[in-house]
């Protein structure tokens, strides 16, 4: 049966001499099978680390795009400015406390006349432990105080039960909506709706469970619990709590116009004069996405550098093995030269060996990298991706590594004197 690599060589239009050289290279690789396998494994490990990390990164990017897309491209928020500008300008007037108060948020909603959906939220507890019977979560759950519109603002959907309604807000009901991660931890095989959970020392009835959204920065909605903001103000929040206003302009409303109107109204509520700097910040959802993607780009660069460093080690190993191979086959090289092979033919033979080993290592590395990267993505509930760009880069990098590693040994082999080579012991 014809060797499949030889069939590929024929299809690529190799000359008879090149085909013969390729055949000799393949026999040489087979004759030193253990050494070839070890070299292929070294290269495969380097490519696996490169493609695997970058595949997982691409999958996480796809998840972030999906989650932020649910929020709506036009949505934006008004929140406290944590970096105090007064430190840069000592003469600036200090009018307000840094936090946005509940009354200011309510005044804004009452005066904002742009057609939109508005919501108020605040972090009631940052790292809470939620309990149900003897089961409890890790102390990583974020408890969010909000109204009935926040679930739609963050792009979440109710999987079972219901959302908050006007009556829950008016009566300050002890009701809660939980994320899918909380539900899986506390209610294994049990319907959470109607059950009583403990948030700190306060008991709440679960009225709804959200659909899972997978891992995101800050833990995501899966590891959160929502309670009515009217209830939280009497149980967890204080006058010093930081409230956030979320706005989703209706379809057809210009986002720039909506943001300008929001900033103007809120400056008035915060009693700022025309010469005062804004002591709050307006953040667009796409701006948040852009910031996160910038962070992810640094992660991608770091992953690429780690993979390249690993491949440099593989290149050194491949070059060393090829140099040893040249030394071991000195008599063979002398015999081939004595039979008429020129320096170009010998050089081509060793380059073929190096390239075949490099590409086999690259093929296994790409396969394992895609598998490892997507297995990592599965743990984060991220979508499956096929990183065509990184696969192409893997093939190209392996070609460069194999040519660079094999060139010096090939040149050394081609320059051997045939008479001296035949005398070599």
Give keywords.
alpha+beta, 14 helices, 12-stranded mixed beta sheet, 12 strands, 425 residues
Describe the 3D structure.
The protein has 2 domains: 4-66 and 292-423, no CATH class; 82-278, no CATH class. Helices cover 55% and strands 16% of the residues. It is built from 14 helices and 12 strands. It has helices at 4-11, 16-31, 33-71, 102-111, 150-153, 166-171, 180-186, 229-235, 255-269, 285-328, 330-338, 343-379, 388-414, 418-423; strands at residues 76-80, 116-128, 130-132, 135-136, 141-146, 158-161, 175-178, 196-199, 202-210, 224-228, 243-249, 280-284. Strand 3 (130-132) and strand 4 (135-136) form a beta hairpin. Helix 3 (33-71) packs antiparallel against helix 10.
The overall strand count is: 12
Biggest β-sheet description: 12 strands, mixed
Low-confidence stretches: 83-92
Q: Cα distance, first to last residue? A: 36 Å
Give the fraction of residues assigned to helices: 55-70%
Tell me the β content. Answer: 15-25%
Which structural class should the secondary elements be placed in?
A: alpha+beta
Number of domains: 2
Roughly how many Å is the radius of gyration? 32 Å
Q: What's the average pLDDT?
A: 78
User: N-to-C SSE series?
Assistant: HHHEHEEEEHEHEHEEEHEHEHHHHH
| Number of helical elements | 14
Shape: elongated
Write the layout of secondary structure elements.
Layout: H1 4-11, H2 16-31, H3 33-71, E1 76-80, H4 102-111, E2 116-128, E3 130-132, E4 135-136, E5 141-146, H5 150-153, E6 158-161, H6 166-171, E7 175-178, H7 180-186, E8 196-199, E9 202-210, E10 224-228, H8 229-235, E11 243-249, H9 255-269, E12 280-284, H10 285-328, H11 330-338, H12 343-379, H13 388-414, H14 418-423
Parallel strand pairs: 5-10, 7-9
Antiparallel strand pairs: 1-11, 1-12, 2-5, 2-11, 3-4, 3-8, 6-9, 7-10, 8-9
Helix pairs in contact: 2-12, 3-10, 3-12, 3-13, 4-9, 10-13, 12-13
């Amino acid at each position: 049966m014809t060797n499949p690599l030889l069939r590929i060589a024929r299809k690529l239009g190799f000359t008879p001499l090149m085909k013969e050289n390729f055949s000799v290279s393949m026999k040489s690789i087979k004759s030193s099978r253990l050494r070839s396998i070890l070299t292929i494994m070294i290269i495969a490990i380097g490519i696996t680390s490169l493609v695997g990390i970058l595949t997982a990164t691409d999958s996480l990017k796809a998840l972030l795009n999906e989650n932020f897309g649910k929020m709506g491209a036009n949505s934006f928020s008004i929140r406290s400015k944590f970096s105090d500008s007064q430190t840069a300008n000592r003469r600036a007037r200090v009018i307000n406390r840094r936090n946005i108060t509940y009354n200011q948020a309510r005044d804004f909603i009452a005066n904002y006349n742009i057609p939109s959906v508005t919501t108020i939220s605040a972090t009631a507890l940052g790292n809470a432990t939620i309990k149900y019977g003897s089961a409890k979560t890790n102390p990583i759950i974020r408890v969010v105080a909000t109204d009935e519109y926040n679930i739609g603002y963050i792009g979440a959907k109710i999987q079972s039960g219901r959302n908050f309604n006007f009556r829950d807000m008016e009566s300050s009901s002890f009701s809660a909506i939980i994320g899918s991660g909380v539900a899986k931890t506390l209610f294994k095989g049990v319907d959470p709706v109607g059950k009583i959970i403990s948030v700190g020392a306060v008991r709440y009835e679960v009225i709804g469970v959200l659909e899972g959204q997978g891992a995101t920065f800050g833990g995501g909605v899966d590891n959160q619990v929502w309670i009515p903001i009217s209830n939280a103000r009497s149980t967890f929040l204080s006058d010093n709590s930081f409230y956030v206003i979320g706005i989703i302009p209706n379809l057809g409303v210009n986002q720039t116009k909506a943001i300008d109107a929001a900033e103007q109204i809120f400056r008035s509520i915060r009693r700022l004069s025309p010469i005062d700097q804004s002591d709050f910040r307006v953040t667009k959802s796409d701006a948040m996405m852009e910031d996160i993607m910038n962070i992810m780009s640094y992660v991608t660069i770091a992953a690429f550098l780690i993979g390249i460093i690993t491949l440099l080690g593989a290149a050194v190993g491949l070059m060393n093995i090829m140099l040893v191979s040249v030394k071991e086959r000195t008599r063979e090289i002398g015999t081939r030269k004595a039979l008429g092979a020129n320096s170009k033919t010998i050089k081509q033979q060793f380059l073929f060996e190096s390239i075949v080993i490099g590409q086999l290592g690259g093929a296994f590395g790409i396969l394992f990298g895609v598998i490892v990267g997507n297995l990592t993505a599965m743990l984060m509930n991220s979508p499956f991706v096929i990183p065509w760009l990184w696969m192409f880069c893997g093939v190209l990098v392996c070609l460069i590594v194999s040519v660079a590693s094999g060139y010096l040994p090939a040149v050394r082999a081609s320059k051997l004197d045939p008479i001296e080579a035949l005398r070599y012991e």
